[in-house]
Design a protein that fits this description.
- It comes from Pedobacter jeongneungensis.
- Keywords: Signal.
- This is DsrE/DsrF-like family protein.
- The structure is a single chain.
- This protein is an alpha/beta fold.
- The protein is 43% helix and 17% strand.
- A 5-stranded parallel β-sheet has the order 4-3-2-1-5, sandwiched between helices.
Length: 151
């Protein structure tokens, strides 16, 4: 009986040691590896909520600064509906937009929104671009393989 207990203890110790060794040799997860030469992301903004807009602009900057994507990422921000607030001159996003623009981000506004809401383009920043429709932009970019991001 005593020999059986000793044998059982040895087996338990071997199992514990094997499990600890296996856990120690596992590499910790560090995220996906960017294996492609380039990536394209379309960020969609259709909210006027300041917190949402600031978060979206911050998310874009964070993606551009991700060391895995640095120099490999093309980004467009499409604003439509209530998202037009991001491009209003009387808003508070000029500094963030200029930073993103300096990093090559395409800043696009839906012309349908401007027309339907009777917004004078002079009320919007002059450095933005216009597309016929925000939904059309999403559809086309998606078909071209762009990742669509809804922060």
């Amino acid at each position: 009986m005593k020999k059986l207990l000793i044998l059982l203890q040895l087996v338990i110790m071997m199992v514990i040691t094997t499990n600890v060794s296996a856990q120690e040799t596992k590499k910790p997860f560090t995220g996906a590896v960017a294996k492609k030469k380039s990536y394209k992301a379309l960020y969609v903004l259709n909210s006027a909520e300041e917190k949402h807009i600031s978060g979206t602009l911050r998310n874009i900057n964070n993606a551009l600064e991700d060391p895995r994507l640095k120099g490999k990422l093309e980004v467009e921000l499409i604003a439509f509906g209530d998202g037009v607030a991001v491009y209003r001159k009387d808003g508070k996003f000029l500094e963030q937009l200029n930073l993103l623009k300096s990093k090559g981000v395409i800043l696009a506004q839906c012309e349908n929104t401007v027309r339907e809401r009777k917004i004078d383009k002079s009320d919007l920043f002059d450095f933005i671009s216009y597309v016929p429709s925000g939904n059309g932009e999403i559809i086309i970019r998606s078909a071209e393989g762009w990742v669509i991001v809804h922060p």
